[in-house]
Amino acid sequence: MADTKIGQINHFYTNIGVGIIKLTKKLKVGQTVRFMGATTDFEQEISEMQVNHENISEAKAGQEIGIKVKDKVRDGDEVYLVE
Known about the structure:
By secondary structure, this protein is an all-beta fold. 0% of the residues lie in helices and 54% in strands. It is globular, with a radius of gyration of 11 Å.
């Protein structure tokens, strides 16, 4: 089954390794996502995510969430749910 696009990177905080994702679909802690861009391509399980510095377990479409990423992501990179 093909991966589903669920959002896009809006910003990356290099000093803390956190990517900001603008979601177009819901996302839950424990799911695996794939980051893809011109020079980006890796998968990672979501172990935690935050909205306004508060930990949440589920995010809805339209929200902007912050997650700690294991590699560098760039503005405009697409985020897919690995199914």
